[in-house]
Amino acid sequence: MVKRLEKAYIYALLFFLYAPIGVLIVYSFNQNKTNRVWGGFSLRWYIALFNNRDIMSALYYTLLCAVLATIISTIIGTFTAIAVDSLDGLMRVVYVNLNYIPVINTDIVTGISMMLAFAFAKIKFGFATMLIAHISFCIPYVILSVLPKLKQMDPNMVEAALDLGATPWQAFYKIVLPDISVGITTGALLAFTLSIDDFVISFFNTGSGVTNLSIYVYSAAKKGISPEINALSTIMILVVTALLAIINKRALSNNSKRGEK
Amino acid sequence: MSNTIIEVRDLSKEFDGEVVVNYINFNVAEGEFVTLLGPSGCGKTTILRMIAGFETPTSGDIYLYGKKINDAAPNERPVNTVFQNYALFPHMNVFNNIAFSLAIKKLPKKQIEEKVNYYLDVVNLSGYGSRDVSSLSGGQQQRVAIARALANEPKVLLLDEPLSALDLKLRKEMQQELKRIQKEVQITFIYVTHDQEEALSLSDKIIVMRKGEILQIGSPIDIYDEPINSYVADFIGESNIIDAVMHKNYEVEFLGKKFKCVDKKFPETTSVKVVIRPEDIEFSSLENAQLTGTIISSTFKGVHYEYKADIGEMEFLVQSTVEKSPGDIVGLSFVPNAIHIMRAEQRNIISSKMKQDNVVSFLGADFECEHEIAGQSQDVLAVIKPADWIILDKADKSAKLEAVIQYSSYHSERYECVAKIGDFTILLESITALKPGDRVGLDVDSDDIMIILDEEDLIEMDQEMDEEEWED
Amino acid sequence: MSKKVKALALPYGLWMIAFTLAPMALMAIYAMRSSQGQAWTFKNFANFFSPLYMKVLWESVYIAIITTAISLAIGYPAAYFISVLPRKQRDIFLVLSILPMWMNFLLRTYSWMNILGRNGLINKMLSAIGIGPVSILYTRGAVYLGMLYNFLPFMIYPIYAVLIKISPSYLEAAKDLGASSWSAFWKITMPLSMPGVITGISMVFMPAVSTFVIPELLEGGHTMYIGNLIQHQFLQKGDWNFGSAISMILMAFVLLSMMVLNKFDTSGSKEDALW
Q1: Residue-wise DSSP of B161-184
Q2: How far apart are CA C244 and CA C234, in angstroms?
Q3: Most-buried pick from A223, B201, B279, C113 (CB within 10 A)?
Q4: Dist. CA A169–CA A175, nearest whole Å
Q5: Contacts (Cβ under 8 Å, ≥6 apart) of B85
Q6: A236 and C207 in contact by Cβ < 8 A?
Q7: Per residue in B113-158, pLDDT tens?
Q8: pLDDT per residue as tens digits for the range A160-210
């Protein structure tokens, strides 16, 4: 009985979370232009989507920025985490705390302070400034994902590798990297999500015709949104779901391999 | 002995100014099973890590086949380590763990396979290659760790408390295994442990350590039968330690009686300590007994009983298969061979005067010390350990005292000397050879001079020291 | 070798100086400069403490507190119910509950405009039973709904992460000592999950107090919140000095609330951990 109540609660919650998405998906197949009336099934908005230059450009910048920011912040973040793990005393405290600033600060403060800096240095606003801003707020999350894994790592492991003839570099990529790979993947996923999802920081740090999806939707929403956005949302949620399903399946099969004795 | 493989010379290591390893010297011969034995924190693991190359010595040298290896990286040393927690790579299976060093060397696949299988066989794990390391028991992981280190075919295998994570039964079993493996692969083993029983049953040579210093080096039998001092005696097994006096060769006096023994009198020393192992004491009829006492407690230990007997001035530990009950009056006897004579811990006790705060004067010279004066000047005793003298060349101007060596003998890698400063006799220890007639200059560091008011302070301090050590 | 490893921290150190510290310093300098002329002044800060702007701050804090409270009330049971499910189901429900986060934040907010609007789904259903149309979009209620929708997963996940780490043996011990399921929950699970609750609260409160997008889209921008005020100063009025001062005040306010919040966290060191 209680079990059922609990499940009902979770299902109700999921309904709340998915209803708006469901509505978007349904409307994306609507023949009519407005979301008011169901005019029959159609793929016209999907075709229109791919012909909409503005949306395509926004999508391009969003993905390009997310991919680059993820790669760069994952590399910098991982190496920094390794270095910070070997630091002690004051330097460690300084690094760990400075690293927290972008995490603790609200987006609007982070975004505006960077905008001030770029304006002050007379750097032209555009894709580069947006990318730098994204990398800046992604690195802390990568570091925070990798650092605990390094801490858990047995320090003898590296010593054992060196002892068995590995060079420091071999010890790093044969032993350390596989051991902290879960942390790195988590960090990279977080970075990608944060980048895709960001509006506020991008909004203040972009310029000269570079618009990402968030900014596009923000300005369109005030004027009234064209139904192509429904189609885009549908595609995005399906791609993400598929990706997650693949990752999860891999994680599950790894787990079961580990579990067998 | 055969060829020396490792030489450790004047090796010291400090961490943040704290001396962990203090001026250590020893040799390891090829094929030997050497154990560094001591309580935790005595510096034994640090020595091992310096040999492996994980720590750099603060001073001193390590030689391998006569070649200095201080600055060689761990991956450049033909030395491998079996870690206390095994440090198996969790993302590799058993085979790949053992093959790690071979793959680094880029050996052909077939050769790797042959070697891995050979060492799997050596550690009795044939057929376990494809297993995940996390699915193995502690003992099996231990074997993989050994096989992994052996597969690199090191000249020396270093083992850092390898059995400490195993339960008692497995530990005994692995002791046998280690001995067998060492015979089979014929590699030099340097083994670190705090377990004296492990050390006694495995080693060719034991190095007993305390607080960063070597107390004694010897075969298990030497160390058990002829412990150099009461600390080693107590650490290496249960024992009865008694203050005694030796006035002449082959006779020792303790507990108010004279006993025959097999040792000669030490030159310049009459005060000694006697060690009698509890298993060397037998119950005998009261008239034939060397000592009599009353049983105060009895514990059954499986193969024998362990008794505490009150013999008046102290309690005696006795092991016997004969059953007695508390309250029984018993005679105790032992053969001369069972009496092991040790020199009592040696110290120079010198009458001195405190001249002012932190300045003490003795034997005609002033020394800095850490003691505050009570009153104008004060008669005190300065206590200095033989090893704490700083020995300088006789021409050295900074020397405060000049001593003439009277007698010198070599003990476990150091020279113990009797010397005269004017008419006053002192004991000193030297790492370099000194012979009778040599003149040396002497100085002492301020923190190596202990100031006491009378000799009773010393006894009190010793007792405190002992208690402190047992807390380790 | 360890020196070389430590040197790896250098690039990011420089990066932080250029893109974190320098911008913050610059903002502080702007905040202390007069908008006319180059004099140093605290006037920008003083200006904020007028009844007009205090009301803005209060409105922001008010909606943030309400949003956080609702998120906690809904999110805690959700996290708890998910955490007690069998492992496989647990993983699936957790992923499902945070999956919408992977869709862009603006798209998520936009989807609610579709539902709440005058011609939206809800009004259509209401009119089918003869009620309405009622205005839902462009009300305070819509803002709460939008914020709850966007920030709820930030509450669920940290609480869940702490809950699944609580060893079941504590609960067994409590029951063994005579506690009912209900009192075991209140006396054991609840206090032990506090670190997660505190993380959740700060992760919802922070974006809620500074948001300007959600009110603009779902409330039509007719109430001014602190986020809107900052954006307004920078992008419409061009008063960077006052805008910087408000940003500094917001930052100080957030830091202060985090510190107060962390006082309640008795779980000790979480020095390097994210959650």
Answers
A1: STTTTS-HHHHHHHHHHHHHHHHH
A2: 9
A3: C113
A4: 10
A5: A154, A156, B165
A6: no
A7: 999 999 999 898 999 999 999 899 888 999 999 999 999 999 999 9
A8: 999 999 998 999 999 999 999 989 998 998 899 899 889 999 999 998 889
* Chain A interface includes C77 (CB < 8 A): yes
Q: What percent of chain C has pLDDT over 70?
A: 95
- What's the confidence (pLDDT) of residue B3? 86
pLDDT at site C271: 44
**Partner-chain contact C247 A120, CB within 8 Å:** no
Look at A147 and C209 and tell me if their CB atoms are within 8 Å.
no
Q: Do C244 and A13 touch (CB under 8 A)?
A: no
The beta-carbon neighbor of C27 closest among A77, A113, A168 is A113
Interface mutation target, options B48, B76, B89, B97, chain A, most CBs of A under 10 Å? B89
CB contact under 8 A, A80 and C74: no
Beta-carbon count within 10 A of B118 CB:
14
- B101, B130, B161: best to mutate for the A interface, most A CBs within 10 A: B101
Tens of pLDDT, residues A218-240: 888 877 777 888 888 888 888 88
B103 C-beta neighbours (distance < 10 Å), count: 16
- CB B132, CB B89: distance < 8 Å: no
Read off the DSSP letter of residue B466.
H
Structure tokens at A126: 């555009």
As a whole number of angstroms, the distance between CA B86 and CA B165 comes to 10
Instruction: Provide the number of CB pairs (under 8 Å) joining chain A to chain B.
Output: 64
DSSP state of A52: -
Angle at A103 between CA A99 and CA A104, to 5 degrees: 105
d(CA C43, CA B180): 84
Q: Chain-wide mean pLDDT for chain C?
A: 87
Tell me how far apart the alpha carbons of residues C137 and C78 are, in angstroms, rounded to a whole number. 27
Write down the ipTM of this complex. Answer: 0.88
CA–CA separation, B382 and B450 (whole Å): 6
Tell me: pLDDT of B467 over 60. Answer: no
Residues present in chain C in total: 275
Residue C77 clears pLDDT 70, i.e. is over it: yes
**Comparing C-alpha atoms, which of B171, B169, B145, B168 is closest to residue B158?**
B145
Number of Cβ within 10 Å of residue B51's Cβ equals 23
For residue C93, what is the nearest residue in chain A, using CA coordinates?
A: A10
Confidence band for A258, pLDDT divided at 50, 70 and 90: very low
Q: Region B257-274: what's the mean pLDDT?
A: 79
Q: For a pLDDT cut of 90, what percent of chain B falls above it?
A: 29
Q: What is the DSSP string of B140-164?
A: HHHHHHHHHHHHT--SEEEEESTTT
At residue B244, φ and ψ (nearest 5 deg) are -150, 170
B297: phi then psi, degrees, rounded to nearest 5: -155, 160
Give the CA radius of gyration of chain C: 23
| Neighbors of chain B by Cβ distance (3+ pairs < 8 Å) | A
SS3 B34: strand
Smallest CA–CA distance, residue B80 to chain A, in Å, is: 6
**Contact check, Cβ <8 Å, A20/C112:** yes
**Average of pLDDT values for A243-248?**
76
Of A7, A27, A147, the CB nearest to C114: A27
Q: Where do the H-state alpha helices sit in B249-398?
A: none
Residue in A5, A11, A112, A131 to test binding to C, most C beta-carbons within 10 Å: A112
Containing B108, the helix (H) or strand (E) segment is none
Which DSSP category does C234 fall into?
I
Mean pLDDT, residues C229-234: 92
Contact (CB, 8 A) for B127 and B171: no
Q: Are residues C274 and A144, on separate chains, in Cβ contact within 8 Å?
A: yes
Are A162 and B105 in contact (CB < 8 Å)?
A: no
